[in-house]
Specification:
Blueprint: E1 35-40, H1 43-53, E2 62-67, H2 70-77, E3 85-89, H3 94-105, E4 113-118, H4 123-131, E5 136-139, H5 144-155, E6 165-171, H6 178-192, E7 197-201, H7 209-212, H8 221-226, H9 233-239, E8 241-242, E9 247-250, H10 268-275, E10 280-284, H11 291-299, E11 302-307, H12 311-327, E12 335-341, H13 351-358, E13 362-367, H14 370-378, H15 383-386, H16 391-404, H17 417-426
Parallel strand pairs: 1-2, 1-3, 3-4, 4-5, 6-10, 6-11, 7-9, 7-10, 11-12, 12-13
Antiparallel strand pairs: 8-9
Length: 430
């Protein structure tokens, strides 16, 4: 039997079992800008692919779903160029499957990868298809996350460093302390978990990260966003401001001399470069609702929602959680932080009632402490530097451990931003 003509190199023989993703998909790399076309025999698989295409990690891929199996794909590509990746579902037995795949291979362009979803759980079939150039064979039925993991594995560079995690902090209402929480968690990540962290202050007009870390850099994140043609690792290196041994800041200009109206994808290049070079990227999001804000929030690996226990926060938090549940169906729910609990003489919704109404258990409950937080803010320091044994400092450490996904972050050996962080640590304060 002749070999298939797919352009994928042979892969090591394995079992017919599909790749096993982490339960919440937290370690799945984003899919690059590729074209994907699928040919389905069942409505169930078509719906699975639609769910996968809507996932945040597939946001840059172009996905088109057709009905019909391998024969339909062969007929279609007889008169059309093939995409980067073809997904085909089949119920054919082994011998017929190989014959139909040979016909499909005859109309595929060089460089096209093919993933087959079949019904036969057979190690020998799996090995045979790999020898003949099929990129992956999955035993159906498959889930949306399984599809995403498979595609990500096909296009991941095995020599590339693991992507850093992005953690987006958003408030249920303006002034609830989301920025303060994000800054303290970034500090906790860099100090207690031992990894390099970049804190990006995305509240360009009113951001306070520079104040909280006693920094006043001449340049920051605005220059990166407004100069997409110059943006690379070296340029971003120069914009970083050192806050502590392992923490660097992309500061907001916090000026009103110009407006900051951006397209939906404006933040992506900055975040991508930072994410490719440091283990953790903390995003301090402003309390606005725009295209880029929504896209950045949905695309984050982890989300921390900070609220205060009142009715407006409850309503807004419910709206945000409902939106994120719909937009991030293959992700865990955002982490809930209830801040400033116990303000004297202020009527509050009880914490357990607040959490029950949202259906989310709070990750941290931070008590009101005007003296501690006021002292920290007025001195350009985070809470842990003022009182490392306080309940608030312990809460920030707990949040840091949760969003990191592990108890420790190993120091990554990186080029680009990693090298500049090392240089920043070696500089003497002027």
């Amino acid at each position: 039997m002749s070999s298939l003509a797919f352009d994928d190199p042979p892969r090591p023989a394995g079992s017919a079992a599909a790749p096993t993703p982490s339960p919440d998909g937290r370690d799945v790399r984003p899919i690059p800008r590729i074209s994907i076309q699928a040919f389905c025999e069942t409505q169930q698989f078509a719906e699975t692919l639609a769910a996968a295409a809507a996932d945040r990690r597939m946001g840059r891929a172009h996905v088109k779903v057709h009905m019909g199996g391998i024969a339909a794909a062969t007929e279609f590509y007889g008169a059309a160029p093939t995409p980067n990746l073809i997904l085909v579902e089949t119920t054919l037995p082994r011998e017929r499957l190989v014959v139909e795949l040979e016909r499909l291979a005859s109309v595929c362009d060089a460089g096209t990868k093919v993933v087959v979803v079949g019904i036969t759980n057979d190690v020998e079939l799996y090995r045979e298809l790999h020898r003949r150039g099929v990129s992956e064979y999955l035993v159906g039925p498959v889930g949306a996350l399984q599809v995403i993991v498979t595609v990500a594995d096909l296009y991941a560079d095995p020599k590339a460093e693991p992507l850093g995690r992005t953690v987006a902090f958003v408030g249920g209402k303006g002034g609830v302390g989301s920025s303060t929480v994000s800054h303290s968690v970034a500090f906790a990540l860099s100090r207690t978990l031992g990894g390099d962290v970049v804190l990006a202050d995305l509240d360009l007009a009113f951001g306070t990260a520079g104040l909280d870390f006693n920094q006043d850099p001449a340049q920051g994140i605005a220059e990166a966003i407004h100069s997409p043609d110059r943006l690379d690792e070296t340029f971003l290196d120069r914009l970083l401001s050192r806050c502590s041994d392992h923490l660097s800041l992309l500061a907001a200009p916090a000026t009103l001399d110009r407006t900051f109206d951006f397209g939906e994808t404006a933040m992506e290049p900055v975040i991508d470069i930072a994410q490719a070079n440091v283990p953790m990227v903390v995003l301090d999001l402003p309390h606005i609702w725009s295209g880029w804000m929504k896209r950045t929030l949905i695309a984050a690996d982890e989300i921390v929602l900070t609220v205060e226990p009142d009715l407006a926060n409850l309503r807004n938090a419910k709206n945000l959680l409902d939106l994120l549940k719909q937009a991030r169906q293959n992700d865990a729910a955002p982490h809930l932080v209830i801040n400033r609990v116990g303000v004297p003489k202020r009527p509050e919704i009880k914490v357990d009632e607040f959490a029950k109404a949202l259906g989310v258990e709070p990750l941290a409950i931070i008590p009101f402490d005007a003296a501690l937080f006021g002292t920290a803010a007025n001195n350009g320091r985070v809470v842990a530097e003022v009182d490392g044994k306080s309940a608030a400092a312990a809460a920030f450490d707990r949040i840091a451990r949760a969003v990191s996904g592990r108890n420790e972050i190993r120091r990554a050996r990186r080029q680009g931003l990693g090298s500049v962080l090392a240089r920043l640590r070696g500089r003497k304060t002027a």
